[in-house]
Design goal:
- This protein has four helices and no strands.
- By secondary structure, the protein is mainly alpha-helical.
- The model has no long low-confidence stretch (mean pLDDT about 90).
- The protein is elongated, with a radius of gyration of 16 Å.
Length: about 100
């Protein structure tokens, strides 16, 4: 008898997540200061999400990655936090 190999279910991006990444990539490529670093971090988020065993959606994983300090530079971190909605003012901070 041969070995039975159990594979993890493949992760797939939703149509919305695919559009999010496409637009984010185009926009980050236009940003002169910090854009390339943020784009590299975004690629790292995608690769890390695919390799991670957690069953989190991409957007939730990206937020978690950023909150855990995954971005190497402050500028890339700021750009990606804006992209993932982490820099939005809370109700107490709104003017």
């Amino acid at each position: 008898m041969g070995k039975v190999i159990v594979q993890k279910p493949a992760k797939q991006l939703t149509t919305l997540e695919q559009s999010f990444l496409r637009i984010a990539g185009e926009e980050l490529a236009k940003v002169k200061f910090g854009g390339p670093a943020a784009l590299a971090c975004l690629l790292d988020i995608v690769a890390s999400w695919h390799g991670n065993a957690l069953h989190l959606g991409f957007h939730d994983y990206g937020k978690r990655w950023l909150l855990e300090g995954g971005a190497g530079s402050k500028v890339a971190d700021t750009l990606l936090r804006d992209l993932f909605g982490l820099n939005e003012p809370g109700p107490n901070r709104a003017a």
